[in-house]
Amino acid sequence: MNKETLKGVLQQFAVRKLPEPRRRQLELPLNSGKVVYVTGARRTGKTFLFFQTIGDLLAQGIAREQIIYLNFEDDRLFPVEPGQLDLVLRAHQELFPNSAERTRYVFFDEIQNVKDWERYIRRIHDTEDVAIFLTGSSSSLLRRDMSTA
After folding, report:
1. Which of 103, 133, 120 is nearest to 37 (CA)?
2. DSSP-based three-state secondary structure for 98
3. How far apart are CA 94 and CA 89, in angstroms?
4. Distance CA 10, CA 137 (A)
5. pTM (predicted TM-score)
6. Cα 23 to Cα 88: distance, rounded to the nearest angstrom
7. What is d(CA 58, CA 23) in angstroms, rounded to the nearest whole number?
8. pLDDT tens-place string over residues 24-83
9. How far apart are the C-alpha atoms of 22 and 89, rounded to whole Å?
10. Separation of alpha carbons 34 and 142, rounded Å
11. Which of 59, 70, 71, 94 makes a 20 to 30 Å CA pair with 79?
12. Which domains are present in the chain?
């Protein structure tokens, strides 16, 4: 994963208009203090649940610069080598220097595409002021396996 390309992807999300998903009854907890993980079959609305949640954050007055969204099926991010996930928060802070002063909301879509993602998520959950939301579609991330990850 190239840092400059990553910055471009982050910047593109920060300025793009969000899709307006059909409102779902399910709402993700915004301040649970836990990593929120949504799993399910492909093409069932996990990404649009993220967009709904991001829209809810924006409606509550959370600045767009506090929100990080990455889809790890985006070919511009390939390959993501172990240890490179640390570039995400660093690149985001370079783009938005004041963002680290407040809670950042991190949305990682299709996280199973990144090898050893669990360690990174655990570290930033323990050491950064972040609310973390993840999706995964792979059979390797079945609910019974997620608790150990």
Report:
1. 133
2. coil
3. 9
4. 22
5. 0.91
6. 29
7. 15
8. 888 999 989 999 999 988 878 899 999 999 999 999 999 999 999 999 999 999 999 888
9. 30
10. 18
11. 94
12. 3-146 (3.40.50)
Average pLDDT, rounded, for the chain? 91
Q: Which two structure tokens, joined as six digits, stand for 6?
A: 């990553």
Could you tell me where the beta strands, DSSP code E, fall in the chain? 36-39, 67-71, 104-109, 130-136
**What sections of 23-78 are H helices per DSSP?**
46-59
Query: Tens digits of per-residue pLDDT, 76-89?
Result: 999 998 889 999 99
DSSP percent split of the chain into helix, strand, coil, nearest 5: 45, 15, 40
Residues in the chain: 149
Please give the distance of CA 121 from its chain centroid, rounded to a whole number. Answer: 10
Structure tokens at 93: 């802070």
**Structural tokens at position 73:** 């099926």
